[in-house]
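the two lines:
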Amino acid sequence: MLFTSYEFLAFLVVLFVIYYLIPKKFQWMLLLVASYLFYLVAGIGYIFYIIATTLSTYLASFKINQLQERQVNYIKENKETLSREERKEYKAAMKKKQKTWLILCLLFNFGILAVLKYTDFVIANMNALLDIFSVGTKLPFLRFALPLGISFYTFQTMGYIIDVYREKYTYEKNVFRLALFVSFFPQLIQGPISRFDDLKKTLFDEHSYDAKNISFGLQRILWGYFKKLVIADRLLIAVNTIVGNPEDYQGVFVLVGMFFYAIELYCDFTGGIDIVIGIAQVLGIHVEENFIRPYFSKSITEYWRRWHITLGTWFKDYMFYPISVSKSMLELSKKCRKWFGNEIGKRIPVYVASIVVWFTTGIWHGAAWNFIVWGLLNCLVILVSQECTPLYLKFHKRFHVADKLWYRIFQIGRTFWLMSFLRTLDCYRDVSTTFRMYGTIVTKHNYYELFQGGLMNLGLSVAEYILLLICVTLILIVSLLQRSGSVREKLAAKPMWVRYTVYFALFLAILLFGAYGVGYDSSQFIYSQF
Amino acid sequence: MKKKILINVAAICVAILILMFIQRLLMPKYMTEIPEGNLVEEYYDEVKKHDVIFIGDCEVFSNVSPITLWENYGITSYIRGSAQQLIWQSYYLLEETLAYEKPDVVVYNVLAMKYNEPQKEAYNRLTLDGMKLSKSKIGAIKASMMKDEVFITYLFPILRYHSRWSDLTQEDFKYVFKKDTLSHNGYLMRIDTKPVHIIPKGKKLPNYQFGENSYYYLEKMTKLCKDNDIELLLIKSPSVYPYWYEEWDEQMVNFAKENNLTYINFLEVVDEIGIDYSTDTFDGGLHLNLSGAEKFSLYLGKILSETFGVPDQRDNAEMKKIWDEKVDFYYAMKADQEREMAEYGYLKSYGAQAQQMEAE
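prediction for all of em together
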């Protein structure tokens, strides 16, 4: 059931009505039923994977908790008799047992993800190797169907089990509640990747009808659909024309494609998240923000703090830190300090952890070399940027431009284009094509084609370009307004006729200008297959 | 509180009115191009007292002239035809028509029996968009939808036509509230000529059997007529394209026999009718032009009048008044088309696009 389908809208309306009609204590159960129904529509076979993840995580969390409780009780009961050493030894033994359950759970669930998502990628690479060595045989592809949102729910659930292991919070005793946390339908497809302790505060609560919450939630949903249907799916036509025909669209068109894709992806992904957060808000549930105006970032590091925030923090908390402070990494650092000196030695763990994280981030986005190269290039830019920090500081000390508006705009533009360049790796069919297209920006001087009707061949009419310009300007204005507080709160303070006019105009804009129905292939959200 | 509720209700009403206006604005008007898109809805403005109702595809709305039937036999008739009208659409249009009036005879052109499944969204729209919301319309939509079509877009056509915002023309604004009548009781007049050069031989088909779905609706139609005490006449109109196979004809003969109906294949009597395919068709044999339609109607009228006993209403003052106006409009349009032919050498009103669409 696509978010952009009529069936989904009908599903939402029915759900919202029933949700506020039934006794409040059943609300979370209704959400569980709705979430599984939503999942079942995607394919009956997929449901077994999400159930397997839920049950395996429940079992592991139950066992880990059992061991934690046993440890507490044992120490409490034998407080007098146990020496400090014995206590430490006992704790270590218990932790080891917990770790076994944790690792089993991680292996099982990441194993499912890896097998389903990466088997064919591995086979393709093995075939390439066999080709190089002229073996003459090819391994057949297995073509597993990827269950809906598997990357998202696996990461979210594995975050939960790690937190339970780390004793950040206690495990969820009710398996059905855990099932809802894993499968909560709005965020199942494209995140955000929620933390259990954040989401549970409102997910299992009893919610009364709250007009403001519902109004704000619906506004957010409308805004999401506006971004997705009016802008993203319209730009998709031009982007597909450019990247689908790399022999015809080179030079300046590669830049146009980058620019359009930057806007398309932003509107697609943030639009989807707006819909998710809006739906949750109508239900009285708080879901974490996943974006904070990322295109206003002045550096790539800042960009990654503002873009897909929950994925970034997941990698930071569950991969970057554990790797960089691991025993083996500390030993490596020690050795490196000895060999290369203090400065470099202390950076080695950070470098290694960064490379691992960015490699994983890349491959999380897709089982293809494009994504791996994209991840590693991001890593490279961030590390080079960190290494250049002393230079930047010198520059700013000498020229005092950091506070100047024009310089800030320059930084924003620089980050935008840098990210757009990297992001182009998502688009073309392979890495070599992408780099060849990068090359044509310099070698092919066809800028004049833009002014000779070149833009008109991308599948969009003049009227549509004008519409896009107006809509993107509107998004820019809203983003600027957001910096001084919630736009919906500001709107709520306006007279009723102003509010109603704005709501209706937004609704009408989606209805009229949305790229849906006959003649449009209202695409899935880009992040839904990650 | 009461004031707030009132304001909200008023706001919703205003919003609905605006949406209704925009929907009307965005829907195709079919005034200068593809006029057959208007045929279904024109019926609702009609005084619904007809002794004969025609249903079917272009082989009725192009080949039968109700004015000729009136002038020569005093038969009051209406054609509820539309482009590539599929048999389930014919059935539901008939069901809807019978909710308004009860004719003596229903004439169904059987060409659409060859289609067992929905064919094209564009043709569905030409028939279904014009229907008023009713149980029959819902039935027709459900029976007609292609796999990738969505039911709600028929109930709220703005969801289908929203992307026309950038293609709106003066015509869309001009006819937003009221449209011109283009047909003559469902007949679309064409006076131009494009002769038939070769009488076609049909290509061999893998299977000549009409589909189950087609028979299902033909049986339903037969039952509907019998239940309402209406004579059902099955015809194959004298268009030479698309080819009408002997095997198809045989099936219709058998069906008529089994159900005690009359079936007439007018292709077998074209000489008797007097149709000359070098002068009586406007698109090489797919459809008859005015000359051909009048000849065919004259022949058909005799059968309706003599065999089926359809009454002559020319002495009925009320009917005469209504039909006199129709006759005037008919001849005015004929004169206008003759003027266009003389001035441009082709018909400006019914452009090439309409012909192409039908030809498909």
